[in-house]
Amino acid sequence: MGLAYVVTSGKGGVGKTTTTANLGTALANMGKKVVVVDADTGLRNLDVVMGLENRVVYDLVDVVEGLCRVKQALIRDKRFEGLYLLPTAQTKDKTAVKPDQMRKIVKELKEEFEFVLIDCPAGIERGFENAIAGADKAIVVTVPEVSAVRDADRIIGLLVSKGMEAKEIRLIINRLKIDMTKRGDMLNIEDMVDILAIEMLGVIPDDEKIIVSTNRGEPVVTYDNAPSGLAYRNIARRILGEEVPFMNLEQNRNVFKGFIKKILNL
Amino acid sequence: MDVLKVFNKVANASKDVAKERLKLILIHDRSNIPPQFINMIKGDLIKVISDYVEIEEENIEITLSNGEGRNENISALTANIPIKKVRSIGK
């Protein structure tokens, strides 16, 4: 029996879909059997971020309406062994699925897959309720902005009120600009962990390579030299229970500075 | 480098402003107390307290804040009520 994770945030545009795609790919590359599920009915994008948009035949809503079985709606990612996508409908809206139906589908997927990653839509209405219905654990994504952290706090409160234990909710801080945090012009990791009071799963540095990889429909975890890719790989290892030290984003620069200093001294 | 750090502190880094604003916002969000409740509490407090002391009604401040010490994680309702004079009762 596998585990279902919902990737959620409250606020839109903080990187839920990118995170879902990359963690799914990273876990599959580590030999796990993974399915990523798009729960954003009506505004689906996980297929696009994963570069699988041309292969959608059936979707989540078709499964709910009994037009096909779950297995028929799954798209196998040919590039990565063990990775599957369950897309959702683009022309329906979120009320096309009920939380109970979602719970049933996720349960069925958990029998087949070790990891079920559910990409939650923004907001706290039906789409959110559907996305969290079958989830055992949650990954809350935020960016270092007041509005995003506020929404993350609200989402954590809602998850707990729906019966999820706080220890099953972990935080990913996305798009951290190291230069700005060093100048004190961006909320830092400590501030956010302090305020949200949940365990941290990882930090993704702001990285142009994410845009390049999304343009191409290739998850950034497959780029060896992308800092964000490395950060996602580290998070996947932590999900698998490995103790991976957090990248000391500030120290990296100091090492570099030390190196320059050394050269100058020579 | 250190000079720069000190300078940042003096200039009140914008992330400190962000953190303070965020903390205050979350106190209200988490407390779940609708803003009109605060007003109603204020009205009732004035009624009760006015029987005993004369107060400056226009300067009353009722705010939500973090508790102190052991109650840090609990929001506290703080009332700041300026007193003009104590009424003499029972005479």
Automatic annotation (TrEMBL), chain A:
Domain CobQ/CobB/MinD/ParA nucleotide binding: 6-220
GO MF term (any one): ATP hydrolysis activity
GO cellular component, one term: cytoplasmic side of plasma membrane
CDD domains the UniProt entry points to: MinD
Keywords in alphabetical order: ATP-binding, Cell cycle, Cell division, Nucleotide-binding, Septation
Biological process annotations from GO: division septum assembly; negative regulation of cell division
Keyword Cell cycle found: yes
Binding site for ATP: 11-18
Pfam annotation, one family: CbiA
Function: ATPase required for the correct placement of the division site. Cell division inhibitors MinC and MinD act in concert to form an inhibitor capable of blocking formation of the polar Z ring septums. Rapidly oscillates between the poles of the cell to destabilize FtsZ filaments that have formed before they mature into polar Z rings.
Family: Belongs to the ParA family. MinD subfamily.
Protein name, per record: Septum site-determining protein MinD
Annotated organism of origin: Oxobacter pfennigii
From TrEMBL, chain B:
SUPFAM superfamilies named in the record: Cell division protein MinE topological specificity domain
Pfam families assigned: MinE (PF03776)
GO BP terms: cell division; regulation of division septum assembly
Its job: Prevents the cell division inhibition by proteins MinC and MinD at internal division sites while permitting inhibition at polar sites. This ensures cell division at the proper site by restricting the formation of a division septum at the midpoint of the long axis of the cell.
Protein's organism: Oxobacter pfennigii
Name assigned to this protein: Cell division topological specificity factor
Family membership noted in the UniProt record: Belongs to the MinE family.
Keywords linked to the UniProt accession: Cell cycle, Cell division
Keyword Endoplasmic reticulum: no
Cell cycle keyword on record: yes
